[in-house]
Design goal:
By secondary structure, the protein is α/β, with parallel strands linked by helices. It is built from 7 helices and 10 strands. The two termini are 35 Å apart.
């Protein structure tokens, strides 16, 4: 039996000194697709930030992609994040650089140096999300949905073991949201583990998967038909 890619035991999630989620017990196995749902302010993003070490885990136990979140040293955080792909709601593309230059920026920041290898990797990840033809476009020249596809490609650059998608469809219309989720599901079908925070329950109905809900400072599994 392989080790879970993520394990939290009796963990408490804090935002400064405020308790956001308490007694979190969570296990995610490799290859799973997991939704985290809940109203705004119930802790979805705080949980995500804890998983990629933007918020420290100080209470309970936590392991993710073979890193211990409790007592994680600052100089270990970049290595943790190389094993995790992160997709944000607002894309976070650099507006003054082309799609390719955005990708090169990330690759150089994570230790890539050989131009031919970088070019090949950029072609590979953009092809996976159907954006290879836009490699030389600027972010403002493509739609929001296309920008999110690029953001997903960027998250794949270092072949992460886990992708964290925090409200990736939050700024998109329903049709575009469906297209973006289809990209994520295809990546999942190819073996990547994905945890997606969302408040878009229509997507859950269309693409059901294991679902956890944040509510009243707790997180718990819900069966699909009761999501409302």
């Amino acid at each position: 039996m392989s080790q879970p890619i993520l394990s939290l035991k009796n963990a408490t999630i804090y935002q400064e000194d405020k308790t956001i989620l308490s007694n979190v017990n969570l296990e995610v196995n490799r290859g799973e697709f997991l939704y985290i749902i809940g109203k705004t302010g119930t802790g979805k993003s705080s949980l995500m930030k804890t998983l990629y070490a933007d918020l420290p885990l100080t209470e309970g136990e936590g392991h993710i992609v073979d890193f211990d979140l409790v007592g994680l040293k600052d100089n270990d955080i970049p290595y943790l994040r190389r094993k995790i792909g992160i997709v944000f709601q607002d894309f976070k593309l650099l507006p003054d650089r082309s799609i390719k230059e955005n990708m090169i920026f990330v690759l150089k920041a994570t230790g890539w140096t050989i131009k031919e290898e970088m070019d090949r990797k950029i072609d590979e990840v953009l092809d996976k999300v159907g954006m290879k033809q836009y490699v030389n476009k600027m972010p403002h020249q493509i739609s929001g949905g296309e920008q999110q596809r690029v953001a997903i490609a960027r998250a794949l650059l270092n072949d992460p073991e886990l992708i964290l998608a925090d409200e990736p469809t939050g700024n998109l219309d329903p049709q575009t949201s469906t297209e973006v989720l289809e990209v994520l599901r295809k990546i999942n079908e190819n073996g990547k583990t994905i945890i997606m925070a969302t408040h878009d329950y229509a997507l859950l109905m269309k693409y059901p998967a294991k679902t956890l809900k944040c509510e009243d400072a707790k997180i718990f599994e819900v069966v699909q038909r009761t999501v409302s």
